[in-house]
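Tip: read the tokens left to right.
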């Protein structure tokens, strides 16, 4: 069986393009505009894909890894590729976060971090596995996200595509435990290091 990704991953790319290109417009009304599609450098086919991926997300279906890579490559050609990848990462994190029950989300933000950190780590691990095909581990006060088969690494020059996972991890931790610590790309497949890995500091702003 060929590799798959959660349908939310390719959908996050397309939603980010829509968001970055016209943050204040009515997206739905604009979808059919040829002019707009040309401006985005994306074909009508891609817009049909938005609908298809949205349906797949609702049905919790996974989609082809290669198809997600093809979309990432389209974004990688844009001069603002990094901004789009960052927006896409944040979109995916927000949607993934919404899959956690409202009660748990609330408790994560109000209980002391001594209690919430293990819970947040468990959710980060689960969501990263499902949506990023990534592995999360904790060493001391750092969290590591490792992605063996990055969708975005080969999509743009240098490690621009890697901003996707970096922004996603940062947003996920911010939402869950209000972490404002930095996220550092410590290992990169584009440098021939086999996989991509990010280190995040657990630094909740509320009292310990
Ligand atoms: Zn990388």
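Filled-in amino acids:
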């Amino acid at each position: 069986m060929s590799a798959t990704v959660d349908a939310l991953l390719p959908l996050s790319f397309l939603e980010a393009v829509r968001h970055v290109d016209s943050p204040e417009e009515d997206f739905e009304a604009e979808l059919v505009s040829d002019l707009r599609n040309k401006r985005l450098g994306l074909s009508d086919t891609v817009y049909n894909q938005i609908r298809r991926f949205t349906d797949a997300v609702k049905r919790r279906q996974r989609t082809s890894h290669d198809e997600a890579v093809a979309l990432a490559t389209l974004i990688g050609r844009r001069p603002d590729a990094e901004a789009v990848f960052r927006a896409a990462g944040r979109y995916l994190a927000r949607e993934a976060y919404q899959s956690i029950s409202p009660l748990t989300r609330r408790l994560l933000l109000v209980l002391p971090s001594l209690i919430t950190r293990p819970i947040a780590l468990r959710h980060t691990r689960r969501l990263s596995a499902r949506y990023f095909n990534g592995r999360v581990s904790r060493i001391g006060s750092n969290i590591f996200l490792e992605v063996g088969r990055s969708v975005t690494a080969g999509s743009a020059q240098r490690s621009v595509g890697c901003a996707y996972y970096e922004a996603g991890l940062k947003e996920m931790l911010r939402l869950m435990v209000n972490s404002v610590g930095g996220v550092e790309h410590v290992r990169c497949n584009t440098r021939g290091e086999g996989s991509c890995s990010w280190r995040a500091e657990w630094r909740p702003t509320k009292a310990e």
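The pocket of zinc ion is lined by residues 153, 159, 162, 185, 188-190, 196 (CB under 6 Å). Residues 4-93 form one domain.
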